[in-house]
Amino acid sequence: MQNSLINPEKHLLPPLTAKVVLCFSLGYFYNLKKHWQGSKVKAFGPSKCFRCLVAGTEITVLGGMLGAGLALLAGENALAAGGKEFISLGTAGWIGAEDWRPGRLVTSHQGIDQSGLAHELGLQPKVDFTPWPDLPPYPLVTVGHAYALTPNRLTHYQSLGASLIEMELAVLGALFRQNNLSLTPLLVLSDGVRQGKWVDCRQSKQTEEGIQQAIQLFEDFWPNQLTELKPLS
Description:
Elements: E1 19-23, H1 26-36, E2 42-44, E3 47-54, E4 57-63, H2 68-80, E5 85-94, E6 105-113, H3 117-120, E7 126-128, E8 137-142, H4 151-159, E9 164-166, H5 169-178, E10 183-194, E11 197-200, H6 205-221
Parallel strand pairs: 1-4, 1-5, 5-10, 6-8, 8-9
Antiparallel strand pairs: 2-3, 3-4, 5-9, 6-7, 6-10, 10-11
Helix pairs in contact: 2-5
């Protein structure tokens, strides 16, 4: 943040490649590590990182940043360490009107922060993403606490037009936009609303298969399509 008494340039951080994959969950971080091998895992502030080659492209994978606060800290650190192109891999909940299935791959073109962190830090609460090619894009809402999803809040988020709910992307996207960079979300549906009740499928076989399909997308599309992604004007 500008004019802050504490900033990431004062911390010793490992340099990053220009291309960075963000895994909010350490589980997905180590899943990528298992598939892509790469360098030893190192500390990156409160998060972790490793480098690897994917389809001949050198990237850095960052993991361990659940929640808007940690995600924002990791994002600030990544910018200071040289990150320029950001893609996220994670799960999201479904709050849209149509039915859904766990494991489905989606992306997002727009996020709305409802955690309050964007407002606190002077960031835009509504941000555009660069959607992943050939996946259906949906607007999402970023919240501060999953267990605070009351029926009234759910109705409010739906009134904003959101079909997806998660805990990091809108704030992180706003930070990157402030620095003239963009974020491309790759999301796996893992839970959501069905007939007025919340259905949790995070540990299901379908969600795990969706994660594996998402990993394969990186290997199939990078570097061809993804290196051509440009920030929205």
